[in-house]
Amino acid sequence: MAFFDKLKSKLFKSSSKIDDGLEAIVEDGGAVDTPDTDDALPVDQVMDTPDIAVEALPDAVEDDAAPLPADVPAKAAPEPVPLRDTIQPAVPDLPASAPAKEAARKPGLMGRLMGRSTAAPVVRRVLDDEMLEQLEELLISTDMGVDTALRVTANMAEGRFGKRLSVEEIKRLLAAEVARIMDPIAKPLPLYSKTPQVVLVVGVNGSGKTTTIGKLASQFKAAGKNVVIAAGDTFRAAAVEQLQVWGERAGVPVLTAAQGSDPASLAFDAMGQAERDGADLLLIDTAGRLQNRGDLMEELAKIVRVIRKKDPSAPHNTLLVLDATTGQNALNQVKVFQEISDVSGLVMTKLDGTAKGGVLVALADKFGLPIHAIGVGEQIDDLQPFDPQEFADALMGLDPQ
Ligand SMILES: Nc1nc2c(ncn2[C@@H]2O[C@H](COP(=O)(O)OP(=O)(O)OP(=O)(O)O)[C@@H](O)[C@H]2O)c(=O)[nH]1
């Protein structure tokens, strides 16, 4: 619960945008429940979940939850990541608590017969084409993207046209749809039995690569893993210093090279040190200068070539770090980095304080790449495992269920 509160308060900007927008949409053409309208449309009927949503829920959750034998071959056998506060994805509840909540707010039978109201009135609006369009626009404004917003709202509307919905009910229905899209891609960073496991971290400058590596190193170290960091962005002195600070804090060695020197040669040395140290994980930072794509592609390719001399199966993960505040531009970055490297999973940073959190839904919908973790601040604990239902609820501004 504490985790949820934190995520929710940190995703405040996305959720408050949806909050405000939904209030306005429902009030525009909605009406306060009266005894007549209550009787006409029982809440539990409104909240019936279409079959499509029910079927997709349980499957995806089991994948990563099963513990794995220790001696399985590399890449075949991920074990759950030992991130601090790891929360295994829960089977998303069907959106059943909204009716219960709102029913609880309604006056009892006697109260209604006597015309007494014991709670604030609930405004509901009939779901029609116009309202659906408004909902689409609202989701698009959180950077969910047109295609994804259309799909989310269409699924949510299925079987509910002509029914009267309240803000709370719409939030729960939309959250269920979002969680359904996100569920298959919520996967902790897999850990392999083969060590050192080499994790190449890529992303444009400023996306949060350095910070994410620092947080990952600290959290893995705290979980008992032996970690080595290679400060592979040899052009940016500030990035190297930042990594050294994280390294000191976490008690993790950070390998650096002279400014402007060849990152591939640093990566090679780091492989050597990781092997000598018996490290479990080698995290390699890389440059993010997309201005010259050809150069960056060649630089990454060279790093890969060189580390494969020591381990032909490396890198075992290529983590793309994306900045949520860039909104739809993040989609473009995935495309570009998929072209120049073998992206195996995503970390989305800066979800705190942005109204563009919906972009994560668009990413999940479009690329289906695993989301290993999300950044919700600059502190070590602000890198969290990705939980689809909590994310969906926080995005919609829902209270904990
Ligand atoms: N609010 C917030 N800030 C973050 C988060 N992750 C990183 N930052 C900040 O974003 C800024 C850029 O982060 P870096 O880790 O330096 O990004 P980078 O990709 O390594 O960028 P270069 O060092 O320029 O290559 C820093 O000020 C970080 O503190 C996050 O999840 N939330």
Automatic annotation (TrEMBL):
GO terms for biological process: SRP-dependent cotranslational protein targeting to membrane. It is an enzyme of class 3 (hydrolase). GO terms for cellular component: cytoplasm; plasma membrane. InterPro entries: AAA+_ATPase (IPR003593), P-loop_NTPase (IPR027417), Signal_recog_particl_SRP54_hlx (IPR013822), SR_rcpt_FtsY (IPR004390), SRP/SRP_N (IPR036225), SRP54_GTPase_dom (IPR000897), SRP54_N_sf (IPR042101). Keywords: Cell membrane, Cytoplasm, GTP-binding, Hydrolase, Membrane, Nucleotide-binding, Receptor. GTP binds at residues 203-210, 285-289, 349-352. Its EC number is 3.6.5.4. GO terms for molecular function: GTP binding; GTPase activity; signal recognition particle binding. It is found in: Cell inner membrane; Cell membrane; Cytoplasm. Coiled coil: none annotated. Residues 196-397 form the SRP54-type proteins GTP-binding domain. Residues 195-342 form the AAA+ ATPase domain. It is a peripheral membrane protein. Residues 105-182 form the Signal recognition particle SRP54 helical bundle domain. SUPFAM superfamilies: Domain of the SRP/SRP receptor G-proteins, P-loop containing nucleoside triphosphate hydrolases. It catalyses: GTP + H2O = GDP + phosphate + H(+). Residues 70-105 are annotated as: Disordered. It comes from the Bacteria. NCBIfam families: ftsY. Part of the signal recognition particle protein translocation system, which is composed of SRP and FtsY. SRP is a ribonucleoprotein composed of Ffh and a 4.5S RNA molecule. Involved in targeting and insertion of nascent membrane proteins into the cytoplasmic membrane. Acts as a receptor for the complex formed by the signal recognition particle (SRP) and the ribosome-nascent chain (RNC). Interaction with SRP-RNC leads to the transfer of the RNC complex to the Sec translocase for insertion into the membrane, the hydrolysis of GTP by both Ffh and FtsY, and the dissociation of the SRP-FtsY complex into the individual components. Belongs to the GTP-binding SRP family. FtsY subfamily. This is Signal recognition particle receptor FtsY. It comes from Sulfitobacter marinus.
